[in-house]
Protein: Peptidase
Amino acid sequence: MNQHVTIPRFYPIGTPGQPWGEHERAQWRASQKASRSYAADVLARIEKLRDSTDVVAYAAIDHGPDGSYPLYALRSKQWDDALPTALVTGGVHGYETSGVHGALQFVERHLADYDGRINVLVVPCVSPWAYERVQRWNPHAIDPNRNFVADSPCAESAALLNFIAPMADRFVLHIDLHETTDSDDSEFRPAKAARDGKGTEPEGIPDGFYLVGDTEDPQPAFQQAIIAEVEKVTHIAPADEKGEIIGSKVVAHGVINYPCRDLGLCAGITRAKYRSTTEVYPDSPRATPQQCNDAQVAAVRAALDYALAHC
Structure:
C-alpha cells in the first residue's frame, strides 16, 4: 500500500477496508439530523417568486420516514421557444449552501434582466434532503454528482435528468453552482473512503473561487470571462505547489477541467456549448456568506452575458 494513503480508522461507521453494506448505510442515515429547513429557506422564497417567474414542480421524492420533498424549477416569465435557452443548477450537493442561495438570489434580482433575450431555467435545490442535513449524499449514501447517468440509482439525479430530457439538446449554456468546503477533507472524503472500503488522504482545500470546465469541450475564453467577473466580488484560488487545484492541473487562472460526462457530473447532462461548474470557498476568512452568494450570482450573469454575445 502507498505509505501516503491511510485508512480512516477514525470514521465512526463501518470496518476499515470493508465496503459498507445495508447495515452501515442505515447506521449512517440514522446519524444524519436535519439542522435547517428546506421549506423555510427554499420553498418560501420560491412562493414569493410566482408572480415574476413560472414555477414548475418537476418531481417529488419520497424519502420514507424523513418525508417527501417537492422539487421545483423557476423559468423565465417571458419564455420564448425562438430564443436560446440556459440552465442554472444549484444544491446538487445540499451542503453547498451558496449554490442554493446564489441561484435564488439570481432569480430574485436578475432573472428579469434577461427576458426577451434568453430563456433561463433555474433549478435551485436539486437535493433538499441533503440541504436540510448539510450533507453531500442522499439518504442512501449516494453522491448525486457522480450519478447523472442512465438508470441512475440516485433519485435526485434521475429526477433532474428526466425533467430536462425533452429540452436537453436546446441548451446553449449550463452552469452548475457548487462549493469546496473544509468539511470535504474533514468529513466527506473520509466518509467516502469508509463507505467504499478504501484509503484516503487529505487533498487540501484551495482558498478561493475556481471553475471546473469540461475536458470534452473546455471553452477557455468562456471560463475566463466568468473568472474576470467573479474576481470583482471575491478572490480566486491560486494553484498549489504542484500547479494543481484539488489534484487537477490548473489550465488557466482559477480553472481546472474534468471529464464531466464520464464522471456522471451534473455539468455533463446537456449538450450545451458553454458548460461550467463553480466552486466557492465559504470557509475562507476572506469571504462572507453574502460574498459567496454574490460570487455565484456574478458567475451566472457572466456566463449568460458571454453566451448571449457568442451563441
